[in-house]
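Box S1 | Example of a co-folding query
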Amino acid sequence: MTSTSGLIPGDDLGRGAPGREAQGRGPNRGGEFSQEDDEAPAAGWGAAISVTKVLGRTRELVRGPHAILKMNHENGGFDCPGCAWPDDRNNLHLDVCENGIKHVTWEMTRKKVGREFFAAHTVTELSGWTDFALEDQGRLMEPMVYDPANDKYLPISWDSAFELVGATLRGLDGPHQAAFYTSGRLSNEATFLYQLWAREFGTNNLPDCSNMCHEASGRAMTDALGTGKGTCDIDDWEKADLLIVMAVNAASNAPRMLTALADAHRRGAQIVHVNPLVEAASRRTIVPHEFLAMAAFHATGTGTMDVQPRIGGDLALLRGVAKAVLERAETDPSAVDALFIERYTANFETYRKAVEEASWEELTLQSGVPEKTIRDLADRYLAADRTIIAWCLGVTQQEHGCDTVREIMNLLMMRGNLGREGAGPTPIRGHSNVQGNRTCGIDHRPTEEWLARLDAACDIRAPREHGLDTVTTIRGMLEGSVRVFVSMGGNFALAAPDTEATFAALRNTDLTVQVSTKLNRSHLVHGRAALILPCLGRTERDVQASGEQGVTVEDSMSMVHISYGMRKPPSPALMSECAILTGMARATLPDSATPWEYYVADYDRIRDTMAKALVGFEDFNRRVRLPLGFRIRQPARERVFLTPSGRAEFHAAPLPDVLPRAGKLMLSTMRSHDQWNTTIYSDDDRYRGVKNLRTLLFMNRADMAERGIGEFDLIDITSFARDGSTRSVYGYRAVAYNIPPGCVSGYMPELNVLCALGDYSGQSDQPLMKHQIVEVVKQ
Ligand SMILES: Nc1nc2c(c(=O)[nH]1)N[C@H]1C(S)=C(S)[C@@H](COP(=O)(O)OP(=O)(O)OC[C@H]3O[C@@H](n4cnc5c(=O)[nH]c(N)nc54)[C@H](O)[C@@H]3O)O[C@H]1N2
Ligand SMILES: Nc1nc2c(c(=O)[nH]1)N[C@H]1C(S)=C(S)[C@@H](COP(=O)(O)OP(=O)(O)OC[C@H]3O[C@@H](n4cnc5c(=O)[nH]c(N)nc54)[C@H](O)[C@@H]3O)O[C@H]1N2
Ligand SMILES: [Mo]
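Box S1 (continued) | Returned holo structure for MGD
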């Protein structure tokens, strides 16, 4: 059975007329493209030029710098929505980075998409625009409703919009016919109201971007340590003498981490980067906040060793390190922390046996890393007293993502690198509040303990059946069992796997509701009825009945702090996310005893209820106003493991076979430097030396030669799903790159077309966005 879904017709993906020549989605499509090996340090002058371009484009040359000075500051500043890396605790004068600035100025554009715009363009016409062009129209100004008679969006009052949501939800056969999606930007307060609305309505259908992001980390760490979060804080990062940084493009996606890496390098710590690509952060670096203070121009090292596993080879690599450690322990008992293992852990013997049984031949073959390199890494691990292992999507978006995260825990636990200073696991979260979303209840599989506390604090009876995640929500919409799709932020149509299936799914609903700041593809791929509800951005002043409000977020290291917008909203008709949720909830649940209107008048009241419902949020309102906010208590940090055995659990996962079969390659999709998930700022990828090209595939030269493919040749890529179906994109360009043989890499969201809906991990339910089997042929 073979179904080839080729290019999605041009009207949908903004690639112009359907044809065999793929086009980019960014602003520069059609121009000259190039790639050179850029050895320039990460950040620095190039970053400054790049920021200037974006500031110029968003007409923010005047207002931008002022806002930037307010970013990530303890008093009166707002939290940078760019990423979840913790803020500098010394209140660094400019704790900002190039990409954070781009992200913030993108929100602050002076351009506006008003009712005249919607009156002038049909949805069908807009569907032919690039994604860049859609977002580039500027900020959404007022609520809009889709009018099928004209194929246009028309203005609608907030009350009528809420009533449409409420009436449609009340008209469903049951609450499970609705799904409530969250992108990780939503504040803790809005998150809490959102899940309360969904649960009071009667469903746990709370899919979120985590389902595509760090679900594997949360599940694996919960099983191993009894917590879904990392145990390190930024102090630990300052004390570690070995940092193993895996599966992240830090210079582009967590640039403020470079400050920590540079500091570690200066004090002589070892920094090992594990990535099939040698990314910019492993080279010389100008730390992010220094690029504005040009006087301080100097490059700092941010890496001491690069290890290049094959895509999916991390588990075998880590097991190899464990094997070398155990071999050393035969002659030097101090190689393992026997006391820690004995006192605090379970299953070590089973794990030891699995490690011993894995042969070096198998480990090197599956990891793609020579034994000598693995032993070199193990020597550094053995020499280090305090080790931190950090990781991001290259580990999680794999079939065996949970097992790999468990292997990270195994390795740390062997040498007692847990629950002590300068040591432990750090998952690097993506969206700025994705961790807070989970803490505050966005979870389609909530625990009984969590629900019981919610019930008690809010006087409701939350449903107990588990709900739908991202993939099963798409399935439900396709089958017709999910009829209403509500989205708090994000761009679900493009972010989700299997673009064709996702588009069809969204179009098969009775109602889609998008709460957004800017026009995007998800507004054009809509249900039979559709609403666009524009909200305030994080940089904007949020005034409610009791005065100006702040909202809180939680960073990657469990620090919760408050954020105040300070800019005038671009339109008086915008509402805050909390207010929009209040309106929708009241319209859905007219008799609800929840004091929605009382809550929204003063967010302190929401926080008072959250303090009762959430473990670790006692005295929330006071503690969140401390200079740096507060850290949610982490039992695993104190060696208290809330697992069923009360111990940290070793786990002997079988080694997965990640070798592509003959003729096939393993594809991993990723971000460019000039992109924020589905938002594309330009078609360049500076640190990888690419200009003006996104429809590309990074390939090993040997794989290109084998297929008779030359540099920049046009190629077609076909993916092979587990159910036997295939999906293709045409007219991509091959770019020779330093990537292990058998591995190829290209950009999301364009390549989501290749990621079949049925291809998700049996361990984490995450779509296999970095684990696609493909064939590449020259056109
Ligand atoms: N500027 C900017 N910042 C962002 C984002 C953005 O789009 N733009 N997105 C945010 C979000 S939501 C997230 S989740 C994070 C994402 O941050 P990243 O995880 O850095 O995101 P990707 O670009 O997908 O990059 C994945 C990295 O994993 C590597 N990789 C791929 N396969 C493997 C593998 O099998 N093993 C190993 N070891 N590495 C592998 C790739 O080479 C690449 O360096 O960034 C956040 N921050
Ligand atoms: N192939 C492939 N696919 C992937 C990934 C991958 O690596 N490969 N990564 C996955 C990951 S890690 C993630 S997190 C998802 C991301 O999935 P999403 O979070 O759904 O997508 P984003 O592109 O981050 O959403 C951008 C939109 O959010 C809206 N927005 C911005 N700011 C605000 C705000 O303050 N409030 C509200 N209400 N809306 C706002 C804007 O309208 C903007 O268009 O994509 C996933 N998809
Ligand atoms: Mo993410």
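The two ends are 24 Å apart (CA to CA). Residues 314-331 form the longest helix (18 residues).
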